[in-house]
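User: Some background: our group keeps a shared notebook of sequences we're curious about, and every so often someone picks one and asks for a predicted structure to add to the entry. Today it's my turn. The entry only has the sequence so far, pasted here. Could you supply the structure so I can complete it?
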Amino acid sequence: MPEFTGPEFSGDGRYDHAAPARIGILLTNLGTPTAPTSAALRTYLAEFLSDERVIEVPRMIWWGILHGLILRFRPGKSAAMYKKIWTENGSPLLRLSQRIAMAVKSQLHDDNMEVVLGMRYGQPSIASAMITLQQANVQKLLLLPLYPQYSATTTASTFDAVSAVLQRWRWLPELRMIRHYHTHAQYIAALVKSIRLHWAEHGQPDKLLFSFHGIPESYFLAGDPYHCECHHTARLIAEQMQLETDRWAVAFQSRFGPRKWLQPYTDKLLSQWGKSGIAHVQVICPGFAADCLETLEEINMQNRQVFLQAGGEKFSYIPALNDHPLHIKALCGLIEKHTQGWAINETDTQREERAARAARMQAAGR
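Assistant: Of course. Here's the predicted structure to add to the notebook entry:
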């Protein structure tokens, strides 16, 4: 009879029971290919488009479409777009996300906190980030997806990835997740400040467009709150800036496939504005914490041309918050709020008790 070994649960074989517990902050973003090449895009898109949260189509049907059509033709087209924005330091999204994580760590001023970045797709993966947290003896974990507006396609998918890792851990940390922060006062204030700074340099536009990444309309009708949260964010910004209702609008970009997505579509609306005689337009993308393909190439290149070719005269893109100090302040404010009650500083007595307990376990051969 074969020996039954049971399930395997991961743990650090060098685990020191006397090691101090730490708080982990896992910042996550969508992800990026490793290079602007067809091969790298094929790998990245295969992972991204295999996520059931992203594509809600029966797997048997979708598998044939994905591998029979999309992964044959899409990687080359996507690679050409990535080449337009690729830098000497690689992917803008990865580099900017890393800078955000480093700035947050510096701003928190807490050696008991371990701040790690993980990408939902690609590298550094959420799984690798979780290993770093495990090795740092993180016993309390705060998950902060860098998606201000909640969607099952992004925030919930991130939770799925973290949960999949934790299912194999021997000792689970206490877990909290920041589900959304689309109305967070410091986040709104940072966006308002970024718009005002842009206006000081480029002048005020005839129209300010808030462009958010789209999702299929069917997801919204099934209960996803993303559409409402996008509008809520834009409305709060417009109110603080005292914008008249005819000075701003909300639209949705980056649609994929033949299904109906959230409307109005960004490119269609910009074309209408250009044809109607609107001369000066500025676009901001409040749903993106860091600049990426969708902002740098789709908005600032493709949609710029759409507006200008339709008759518009002046177009400018207001950059994402990236690692601006006000953005870092907002993120740290969220972290401080959601880690309340998680103080792990030990008294001398607690420290002595922990050391004695570890010594007893070592003596017992455990």
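Suggested note for the entry: Residues 11 and 170 are 6 Å apart (CA to CA). DSSP finds twelve helices and eight strands in the chain.
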